[in-house]
Each structure stands twice: as C-alpha cells, then as structure tokens.
Amino acid sequence: MKSIGLIAGNNRFPLLVAQEIKKSGDKVVCIALKEEASAELEILCDKTFWISVGKFQKIIDTLKSENVETAIMAGQVKHVKIYSAITMDFRAIKIMGSLINKKTDTILKSVADEFAKDNIELLPSHSYLKHLLAPKGLITGQKLNSDEIKNVKFGFKIAKSIASLDIGQSVVVKNSSVLAVESVEGTDECIKRAYQLGGENSIAVKVAKPNQDFRFDVPVIGLQTIDTLKESKCRALAIEQGATLILDKDEVVKKANDLNVTLLGFCD
Predict the structure, then answer these.
(1) Among 98, 122, 146, where does a domain finish?
(2) Is the pLDDT of residue 166 over 90?
C-alpha cells in the first residue's frame, strides 16, 4: 500500500480520482484546496488537509510528512483565484515571480518543477481513470450526416490551433464558421455564448492540447456539460478520443441519450 497525494481542485474529477485510488488498494492523502475543493473529499480520502492554493510550502511539507512520493493534481483551479488577492507564501511568490507569462501551462510546469525539487513525482491526472477516456465513434445520440461531420473536422482543426496557444480547448462551430472560442470561462460558458450568437444546431468540439502534459490537465466533460448542450440546443459535442475524460461515464451517456444529445469520440 502506497500513500498517493491528491491535490484537489473543484468539481467531480478529484472525487472520482480518490475513489479509484482507494479501489486500487492505495491510500489517499488529500490536499484539498480551500478555495475550490468539495467537502465530500473528507469522506473518500484517508487523510484530508485543507490548505489555501497560495500556501505552496505548506502543501509540500504536508505531503512529505505523510511520506508521499507520488501525487496527482485533479480538478480545476479557476484563473480568477490565481489573479485574486489570495495570500501567497514566499515559495508561491517565488514561483509566480519567475514566470515568463501566466498561461496555464507555464504556471503548472513551474509547479511541477517545484514538486520535483522535493522528490515528489506528479502522475498523469488520468492515471487511475483511463477507463473513462472517450472511445472512438458515436457514443450516444443520432448519427451525424456528412455536412455535420465536415463541421466536426473543421472545428477540430480550429480547436487544436487554439489549444496550442493555451487559450482554451473547445470551440463551437456552425456552417463552417466559428461561433465561440473557449477562454478562461470554460466549456459550458463557451457553449452558452455560442447559442446566444448563432442559435441552435451548432456543433461543439473539445480537444486535448498538442503534446498535452496530462500531469496538469485532462479535458473533461460531465453531467453539467450535457445539461448545457441541451439548454443551448447544440446538435452534438465531439470530444477527442483517448484524450478526454467522461466523468461519471455511465450516467453521462444515459443522460445524453435521454435528452437526445449526441456525443462523438473523434480524432482527425
């Protein structure tokens, strides 16, 4: 039995990681980020420590005191929290001060480097969840016609280009035109904005970044995404096969089927 560190942000992702680590027989030592994490982690994890995202040295010291040598970062930390008036310790200030920019990849790469200095290895976020990765082809819903597939391919190329710039990982397209591009607001808000601009029957596409570092970030969808697609009368959501996690997969597929929302695993 090993002690696996879980650095938990918001939403369901960290909860599912905790469950799967426990199923594997390992212990979960959770660093629950005060600004983001769910109280449910207290029930799922062997030990839970509530620490502010700005207290980096305390996070390191806590993991080391629990003999953690490998850790997983799971769950989002909203950019607004990074830019807000949170109190940072000296090590966090040093990290932020050394950045050439404040893009997500830049911040997280620096964080990973700091963990490595203390001999804590970061595992890919989906290490225990690979069974939830999107399969190839139609997952549920009505099959897309040839024009709709052309829009998926068009959106996929645009999304990959945007993702390569670390802007966002989702776009919404219609009639070979881009309605909305995801930024810091997230996929759901991007889909809602597209509906306001272009109406129904658009197609959303979500991808991984080229050369995605899965230690930091795995594209995910969940039950809320299905609700948003339905509310926005979106024709379909295409997600990159083998690179996008479907959280609560069975429930998501059932809900999408019940609401007549099409999900497609795609890779150009």
Answers:
(1) 122
(2) no
- Do residue 167 and residue 188 come from a single domain? yes
Structural domain containing residue 51? 3-122
For the cut 90, the answer to whether the pLDDT of residue 130 exceeds it is yes
Does residue 109 have a pLDDT over 90? no
Model pTM score: 0.85
- CATH number of the domain to which 54 belongs: 3.40.50.20
Extended beta strands in the chain, E state: 3-8, 27-33, 47-51, 70-74, 121-122, 137-140, 170-174, 177-181, 203-206, 220-221, 236-240, 245-246, 262-266
Give residue 55's pLDDT. Answer: 93
Which strand (E) or helix (H) includes residue 256? Answer: helix 249-258
User: pLDDT, tens digit, for every residue of 35-69?
Assistant: 889 999 999 999 999 999 889 999 999 999 999 99
Residue 229 belongs to a domain with what CATH number? Answer: 3.40.140.80
Please, what's the b/e burial string for 62-93 (b: 16 or more CB within 10 A of its CB; e: otherwise)?
A: bbeeeebebbbbbbbbbbebbeeeeebeebbe
Statement to judge: residues 202 and 89 lie in one domain: no
Over residues 193-222, the pLDDT tens digits come to: 999 999 999 999 999 999 888 987 789 999
**How many C-beta atoms lie closer than 10 Å to residue 12's C-beta?**
17
Q: For 180-211, give one letter per residue: b (16+ CB within 10 A) or e.
A: bbbeeebbbebbbbbbeebeeebbbbbbbbee
